[in-house]
Amino acid sequence: MPVTTDIVAAxxxxxxxxxxxxxxGANEGRALAILMAGCxxxxxxxxxxxxxxxxxxxxxxxxxxxxxLLGWIFIAPLIFYAIGTLSQLVLRLMGGRASTYATRxxxxxxxxxxxxxxxxxxxxxxxxxxxPGLTAVGAIWLVAFLWVWLSDLREAGWGQT
Length: 161
Prior knowledge:
The protein has helices at about 5-10, 15-25, 30-55, 60-95, 100-115, 115-125, 130-155.
């Protein structure tokens, strides 16, 4: 299935989609591609906010975009790998038996699935600015991300003995 179809399906049943991803077998290249796609979406979602910031403060836009590029495309993936591995260790302490690959994939997939809401968040940040609308979209993003991540972790083997 195309990734976009899987993203939409993950909002209806995240465990079903994640089960299908796990059934494809461990493939670190696929996991990295999912993570990089999610980070690219988050980088693009920053553009409207950065353009607004540059306009309001009189700064140049290109250095702001360069900093966001460095952060989202080069640094964030390293942090996500660390968080994914750490989540596997926490799950092991809680009695889970998920593999390191499955816990990382759960995090990366949840990040990608929540990406479209982050794009909306970026548009609200750029066109409307800070306020209740931005807070509401941010809260929706957080709930969607956590819901998919925790559902995927459960599918990966959280709580199974």
